[in-house]
Amino acid sequence: MRRWRRRTLVGLALLAIVSALVFLWPTAEPPGVTRTNLKRLRLGMSEAEVQALLGPPSADLTGQAPASGPGPAGQGRLLRYDGDGVGAQVEFDPDGRLARIFPYVRDSFVERLRSQLRW
Question: What is the pTM of this model?
Answer without folding.
Answer: 0.59
